[in-house]
Amino acid sequence: MSSGSLVIAPSRPTPFVRHAESARVVPIPVSLLNAPAQPSPRPSKFAPAPKWLARLLVVVLALGAPAVAFAGQKSITVDVDGRVRTVHTYANDARSLLRRLGVNVRGNDLVQPGSSLRPGMRVTFRRAKPITLLIDGRPTTVVTHGLTVADGLRDLGLKPDPKDYVFPAPVSALSNGMSVSVRNAIHTKVRVDGNLRDVVSAGATVSELLTQAGITVGPYDYIAPSPKAKPVDGMWIRVIRVERVVSEKRVAIPFDNVTVRDSHLASGTRRVVHSGSEGLELRKTLTVYQDGRLVSSEVLSVKTLRHAHNRVVKVGTREPRFVGTGQTQEGLASWYRADGLVAAHPSLPIGKVVHVTDLNTGRSVNVRIADRGPYVEGRIIDLSDEAFGRIASLGDGTVRVRVSW
Questions:
Q1: Which of 53, 117, 256, 259 has a CA that sits 20 to 30 A from residue 128's CA?
Q2: Fold classification of 245-314 (topology level)
Q3: Confidence at 327, pLDDT banded by 50, 70, 90
Q4: Residue 315, number of CB atoms within 10 A of its CB
Q5: How far apart are CA 367 and CA 345, in angstroms?
Q6: Could you tell me where the beta strands, DSSP code E, fall in 32-185?
Q7: CATH 3.10.20 matches 129-183
């Protein structure tokens, strides 16, 4: 086909749409048929929401925001050296929590737990305390985390027996640098008040041991061994009860018999000048008993309440006068204790004055017969010591004499 040819396209029939109601055929314009197809309209992504939806969103945000804000908090009980409180925290471990609470955790301090924190857990902090521990007197420097002495010993793995000695007391607060003494109990036997007792104690001395055993010791009681001695296992201890009794007693003071020689009185004559009277004194006496047995008595003081007055007797020394009848007797003369120039004869009358002469020396003396005797064979007269001494020595015992009357 040449370019100059004219082509005439056949015309397309006009389409029809049949309406069901009228069964009429309605022609569709050609302009609509040739128009490009348009997509169905969609609601915009940013189209304004209905008012009720906006209000619902506001309520949800108001109620949920606090829950979102506290979703990571935990309630933890914190014990810092015995001070306990409950805190709410975001910390994940105990050390972080303690730092947030201003607790300076050092290397030897105790912090528990070591795991991550979970709600309701308990965090315990104990400050490390260096102390001097003396076990039976041997010192050691140790570190413990206890709040009390008992806690500290348990922390060190020590559990003293109730009879063991612990000082300071187990309930005492533990502090840095404190000295804690622990002594193991020992077994001893104590004899006291008539009984033998088995005593288990940790006393450092015998005195402490007795105190822990409830045995009181008086100010004068005697203890063996010494109260300051160190107890050892199996030791025997003796407590001797000493009782000191101070008493006062009125005591009569006896008087003395005093003889006064008087040359104006005939020999052998006795005259009482003063009959004598007892005195009275107050004596304070200390009596000492050991376990009820008397061991000593001592006079502490004497106070005179009334003086004693002696009995005074005058004895005549004047030689009696001799008047002889010419009768004599020879034999041995002995002597005896008597006052004045007197003698004893078996038969001569009492009061008779005789003349006695020592046949060896010729010395003589006049005596008054005052007693009977002697009753020894060969002796004829007993002279008073004073009369015998005038004619011979008392050491001679006997002398040969002549008795004249």
A1: 117
A2: Resuscitation-promoting factor rpfb fold (2.20.230)
A3: very high
A4: 18
A5: 11
A6: 74-80, 83-89, 110-112, 122-126, 129-135, 138-144, 165-167, 179-183
A7: yes
Q: Which token pair is 270?
A: 């006795």
- The listed range with the strongest mean pLDDT (42-56, 57-71, 219-233) is 219-233
Check whether 27 has a pLDDT greater than 60: no
Cα distance between residue 384 and residue 366, in whole Å: 11
To which residue do tokens 């006052």 refer?
A: 339
| Portions of the chain given CATH number 3.10.20.90 | 186-240
CATH node for 186-240: 3.10.20.90
Q: Hey, what CATH topology would domain 74-126 get? A: Ubiquitin-like (UB roll) (3.10.20)
Burial class (CB in 10 A: 0-12, 13-18, 19+), 300: exposed
pTM: 0.42
Architecture in CATH of 319-404? Beta Barrel (2.40)
Instruction: State mean pLDDT over 312-338.
Output: 92
Closest-CA residue to 146 (of 82, 77, 78, 79)? 82
Residue from 391, 376, 316 nearest 344 by CA: 376
